[in-house]
């Protein structure tokens, strides 16, 4: 079983509240979303594993069981072309839970007209394989978001 922890501090809001139909409809996969605190911060690894995909606005870490977790920093933030995002690791790096991956500023994303809401998605998972899903309340980076069986 994989425990997926929050990559950010903020408020858990659930995928249905994400202002993007691809995420809110769970087309990418099941999971939850974080409405982050509006201050410069670092998004951290939600699991121990290898960074298999890394963009300024999104990253995927795959754990030892082959579970890939996508953290997407904001909605439509690909349109910012990396502006305001700083990569702290490289694709292919092995990371530990809680290790900083990307430095960013949710308030700058909001100022640019984008939603800073961050989906945290279990890739290629079924909704039934997730338990203890957190979709409300305040979370700190490192707090449990869901378990993946």
TrEMBL record:
InterPro entries, per the entry: Dup_hybrid_motif, PTS_EIIA_1_perm, PTS_EIIA_component
Principal location listed in the UniProt entry: cytoplasm
Subcellular location: Cytoplasm
PROSITE patterns reported in the protein's UniProt record: PTS_EIIA_TYPE_1
Key words, A-Z: Kinase, Phosphotransferase system, Sugar transport, Transferase, Transport
GO CC field: cytoplasm
Keyword Kinase assigned: yes
Pfam families: PTS_EIIA_1
Domain PTS EIIA type-1: 20-124
GO BP, sorted A to Z: phosphoenolpyruvate-dependent sugar phosphotransferase system
MF terms in GO: kinase activity
NCBIfam families: PTBA
Name recorded for this polypeptide: PTS glucose transporter subunit IIA
